[in-house]
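User: Can you recover a sequence for this backbone? Please restate the input before giving your answer.

Assistant: Of course. Working from this structure:
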């Protein structure tokens, strides 16, 4: 079974486009590094390490979405909900760098594009959705799971959309932009469903054990049902 997921490989983008989004990734991570200091403390720093390790492990597992097509967790929304958007972006970036260097999952020349899409755009989109729906997440466990699912689904589609834009700027494939966009976005809607389920289950498990560690729930009067 082949995998159609967000990891772009070498050769899909031309050199100027790869360099451009490499610069975007470096700039975004520099900002995230500074802002993450406000999110991390003695309690959440260990959780950030666990989130990065979990995303790394789960990204190695593929789930089927169509005959011959499988997907895997991107993890941006999951990380942002648990440890905050800036720290979440750093967690996903570390995973992508390790995968590119040690497992050749995504090419080195495409690393900037992958970080831009999955760690920056996807994480930001997922977190913005979660914040917009936060009032539902704090009312009940069902609300929290629904918000986590929705944020993860949006995270996946936005990350895929980011690569469509990059392909439009400097794609080197033989496929037309319209056909490429339709195929990539259509498949990633389905992958987003799987991402949503995994994210909802994981966030629900953490909230059951330690709701005080869930970044999205901080500062809000959390109903008892959220932790059940």
């Amino acid at each position: 079974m082949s995998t159609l997921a967000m990891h772009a490989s070498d050769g899909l983008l031309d050199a100027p486009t790869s360099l451009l989004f490499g610069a975007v990734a470096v700039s975004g991570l520099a900002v995230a590094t500074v802002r993450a200091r406000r999110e991390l403390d003695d309690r959440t720093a260990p959780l950030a390490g666990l989130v990065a390790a979990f995303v790394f492990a789960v990204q190695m597992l593929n789930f089927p979405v169509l005959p011959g097509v499988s997907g895997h967790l991107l993890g941006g929304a999951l990380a942002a909900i648990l440890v905050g958007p800036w720290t979440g972006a750093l967690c996903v970036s570390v995973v992508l760098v390790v995968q590119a260097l040690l497992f050749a999952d995504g090419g080195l020349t495409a690393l900037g594009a992958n970080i831009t899409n999955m760690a920056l755009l996807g994480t930001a989109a997922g977190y913005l959705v979660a914040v917009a729906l936060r009032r539902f997440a704090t009312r009940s466990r069902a609300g929290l799971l629904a918000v986590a699912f929705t944020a993860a689904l949006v995270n996946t589609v936005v990350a895929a959309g980011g690569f469509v834009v990059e392909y439009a700027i400097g794609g080197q494939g033989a496929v037309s932009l319209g056909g490429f966009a339709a195929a990539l976005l259509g498949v990633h809607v389905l992958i987003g469903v799987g991402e949503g389920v995994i994210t909802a289950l994981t966030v629900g498990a953490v909230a059951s054990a330690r709701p005080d560690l869930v970044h999205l729930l901080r500062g809000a009067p959390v109903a008892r049902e959220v932790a059940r």
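That completes the design. The chain is about 65% helix and 5% strand.
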